[in-house]
Every structure is written in structure tokens, then in C-alpha cells.
């Protein structure tokens, strides 16, 4: 049995078909990168993995069990725009998840439990390279630092599945390189299964162990909502040649032009 099974999965909103007939088996610890034209349903797929959206038809299973219909601590997400709490310091932002997990009603830890939690928090802050900024507020941090904080917030909860929705899309190229090394380090250390959406095919090839291309095989210009996207390529990284790269890029660009026409 695979860790994650996606079997004949469809997602529709009213008469709009967003995703059609997705089939996928993912093992624990894989790093899947998702690329595709804007509007092809990549974020919708992440929302289904998170439990924010349910399938219209088909099966989505975690270790053979139906995916929980609500987000839970097994699954974390990092968005492109910083999702940290502006009224909490770096340390408080990372501590918050542990406090809510252990004290769901009070949201506060005391004494020994708090000291133990803070040890973990400080180790995580160090691990993402923010040790010098522990007591700073989010507005005092650069974009890259805020994303480091969002990543720390997610990893401290030790999610089994981590969803990254264009997490580096708003960052400068130089900073993106540093973030790539950070995410690869944390992924190797934790063995978390990652799904990451990116618009950058090169980033997808560099980071993932597996590249999933979401694309529309059929497109009716008169009725763009009549057909959904599906997974047109599922490539183990390292076995891809330049010709295939060019053909993915041209197919995704063609769909992007159709969708924005
Ligand atoms: N709640 C909703 N109700 C109706 N339509 C929706 C809803 N959520 C998403 N959609 C539609 O589903 C399609 C896919 O959107 P989605 O955001 O998943 O695409 P995407 O591939 O992630 O795009 P991008 O790369 O621009 O973020 C879009 O046409 C969008 O309008």
C-alpha cells in the first residue's frame, strides 16, 4: 500500500471542471514538485491534500484511509505570502503551534512544559537561520526571513505531509537559492513527504525527487470550463533529457495562453 493514493480523482465547482481523473501513488519521504499553467488546479490539489476541499469524485487516501476532511497536525502548509502572526515575535510565532497542540483551550504552556517547548523552538529557529532574530517582530524581517519563519512554524509541528504553495515565488533569485538549500536540509533531516507548487520548471527539477506536470489535454476555447487538468507527466527526476524539458515548457505555455485568452 502506498503512503498516499490518488485514484480517479475529480474536482468540480458547479459546471467548472478543475481537475479530471488524477491518478498517483506517492511513497513516504518523496518530494513532489508540481508545475503547470496558472489556473490549472495545482492549488486546488494542495487544498484537497490539506483537507480544505473534498473531492467531487474518486479516492484520496493516506495509508489506505480516506484523507481527513479537515486540516490536522499531520499536514502543514506554507504559502507564497507570509502567513506568520504579525503581533507575535519570531519565538512566539514558532511556539504558538506547540502551545495550541498541547493546550488547545488555553493556548499557553507553563513551567517545565514551556521550558521543554522553548528548547525545541530555539533549536528550530537556529536550524532555519533565524537565531539572531528570535525576539524580532515579523515587520522587522525581510521577505526571505519571514518565509524562514513560516517554514519553522510548519516543521516544528512535525507534519507527515508538507504542502508548499509557491513558497519562494515572491523572493529575489539570490535568496531563493538559500531557501532551496534550507528546504532540502529540513526535508532530508525529517523525511517529511513534500508537495511543492512552483511556476519555475527549473526549480521543480532541482528540488524534487519527482516532477508532476498539471496540464489540460483537451481544451475547448468556447467552453474553457468543460475540461479539467490532469497529470500529464510524472517524472522521476534525474531521468529527464533536454528535449522533454522543452516539450513540457511549450505544452504548459500553450495551456497558459489558452487559459488567459
Ligand atoms: N472555491 C472555488 N470556487 C470556484 N472555482 C474555484 C474555486 N477555487 C478554485 N477555483 C477555480 O479553479 C481553477 C483552478 O484554480 P487553482 O488556484 O487551483 O489553480 P492554480 O493552478 O493553482 O493557479 P495559480 O498557479 O495561478 O495559483 C481556477 O479556474 C479557479 O478559478
UniProtKB/TrEMBL annotation:
Pfam name, any one: ABC_tran
Domain ABC transporter: 4-241
Keyword Ion transport: no
Matches recorded under Gene3D superfamilies: P-loop containing nucleotide triphosphate hydrolases
Keywords of this entry: ATP-binding, Nucleotide-binding, Transport
GO molecular function: ATP binding
CDD domains for this protein: ABC_NrtD_SsuB_transporters
Transmembrane segments: none
Name of the protein: ABC transporter ATP-binding protein
Organism: Marinobacter zhanjiangensis
